[in-house]
Amino acid sequence: MKPLAILGGTFDPVHIGHLNAAWEAAELLDAEVRLMPANVPPHRPPPVASAEQRVAMLRAALQGQSRLSLDTRELQREGPSYTVDTLVELRAEQGDRPLVLLLGEDAFAGLPSWHRWHELFELAHMGVLTRPGVEPTWPAGLAEAISGRLTTDPQGIRATHAGRVVLMPITPLEISATRVRELLAAGQQPRYLLPVELLDSPTLLAPYRR
Ligand code: ATP
């Protein structure tokens, strides 16, 4: 059974950095990857675009391929979307299928501040997106929690449904939604930072233009 991997985020807006990370992870893991927009991210200021607008951009960006898909469950839930609740739900649905929570290296380093973070390892594998050729370093508490779980073999995680931390080097693309929003607010056209479907739409990027 192909693993199911999840890339969560605000996607305000979705950009080429997100799409490439999800795509390369799908290839390394030979997995189905779902992009999962968050409703009220617990650690962050509210998004500029509404949930409906962010979903519309994701739908447009994902058209024409079937490897990456969209999962809007966190938007349907009231209140903050805690990853642990989402993984409990997915685990109940997916049985013994390997689940992989994809996280950028920075997000992973902040894991000890997440709600019920120790439980995450019981529910899913973690796929940490790293920079090729750079050995990642973690804060002490986290390094201790993951020693014995670390692997660099994305295919090897299929042997179990959860609990490994797989380091996955992907092509580094220094694109952030913050930068994209700044460019759009300044009246510019960040054509090659965004999926072309967003740039060519007359309405999808309206929330960011001044
Ligand atoms: P913002 O600039 O608004 O903080 P962002 O561009 O970092 O947004 P998020 O929606 O917060 O985007 O990111 C969702 C997930 O995608 C996170 O796990 C993040 O680490 C990852 N991600 C974001 N940008 C990139 C990128 N350029 N390359 C690889 N992964 C990325």
UniProtKB/TrEMBL annotation:
<keyword id="KW-0548">Nucleotidyltransferase</keyword>
<comment type="pathway">
    <text>Cofactor biosynthesis; NAD(+) biosynthesis; deamido-NAD(+) from nicotinate D-ribonucleotide: step 1/1.</text>
</comment>
<feature type="domain" description="Cytidyltransferase-like">
    <location>
        <begin position="6"/>
        <end position="182"/>
    </location>
</feature>
<dbReference type="InterPro" id="IPR005248">
    <property type="entry name" value="NadD/NMNAT"/>
</dbReference>
<dbReference type="Pfam" id="PF01467">
    <property type="entry name" value="CTP_transf_like"/>
</dbReference>
<dbReference type="GO" id="GO:0005524">
    <property type="term" value="F:ATP binding"/>
</dbReference>
<keyword id="KW-0520">NAD</keyword>
<keyword id="KW-0547">Nucleotide-binding</keyword>
<keyword id="KW-0808">Transferase</keyword>
<keyword id="KW-0662">Pyridine nucleotide biosynthesis</keyword>
<comment type="function">
    <text>Catalyzes the reversible adenylation of nicotinate mononucleotide (NaMN) to nicotinic acid adenine dinucleotide (NaAD).</text>
</comment>
<protein>
    <recommendedName>
        <fullName>Probable nicotinate-nucleotide adenylyltransferase</fullName>
        <ecNumber>2.7.7.18</ecNumber>
    </recommendedName>
</protein>
<dbReference type="GO" id="GO:0009435">
    <property type="term" value="P:NAD+ biosynthetic process"/>
</dbReference>
<dbReference type="InterPro" id="IPR014729">
    <property type="entry name" value="Rossmann-like_a/b/a_fold"/>
</dbReference>
<dbReference type="GO" id="GO:0004515">
    <property type="term" value="F:nicotinate-nucleotide adenylyltransferase activity"/>
</dbReference>
<comment type="similarity">
    <text>Belongs to the NadD family.</text>
</comment>
<keyword id="KW-0067">ATP-binding</keyword>
<dbReference type="InterPro" id="IPR004821">
    <property type="entry name" value="Cyt_trans-like"/>
</dbReference>
